[in-house]
Amino acid sequence: MAVDKVQASASIGGVKVNDLKVVGEQEAAIASLTHAVGTADGTVDDVGGSFNQTTLNNNFKEVTAKIAAILTALRNHGIIAT
């Protein structure tokens, strides 16, 4: 799709591309999450049939790390406040 028109102003509350609003006004800050135990390694592991505290802690650490990365990206681009 070719971009024919880009508008950005306070009166439209953000940025429009071809009359479609793609970015609005900055949203309020969202508090970061912390999780002190576990290790993030890029995967969420199957907990399996028997309980394993280490696997569970690692999964929570992984999800917390990914949420933190998403929040950082949104803050860096000014989409949410810091």
Low-confidence stretches: none
Please, what is the average pLDDT?
Answer: 90
Q: Biggest sheet, strands in spatial order?
A: 1-2-3
Please report the distance between the alpha carbons of the first and last residues. 34 Å
Fraction of residues in helices?
25-40%
Total E-strand runs: 3
Q: Can you characterise this structure?
A:
With 82 residues, this protein is of the alpha+beta class. The chain has 2 domains: 1-27, no CATH class; 31-82, no CATH class. The protein is 29% helix and 15% strand. Strands 1-2-3 form a 3-stranded antiparallel sheet, with no helix packed on it. The radius of gyration is 19 Å and the shape is elongated. The two termini are 34 Å apart. The relative contact order is 0.17.
Structure summarized in a few sentences:
The chain is an alpha+beta fold and 82 residues long.
Topology at a glance:
Blueprint (H helix, E strand, L loop, with lengths): L5 E4 L4 E4 L2 E4 L29 H24 L6
Antiparallel strand pairs: 1-2, 2-3
Which properties best describe this structure?
29% helix, 3-stranded antiparallel sheet, 2 domains, 82 residues, alpha+beta, single chain
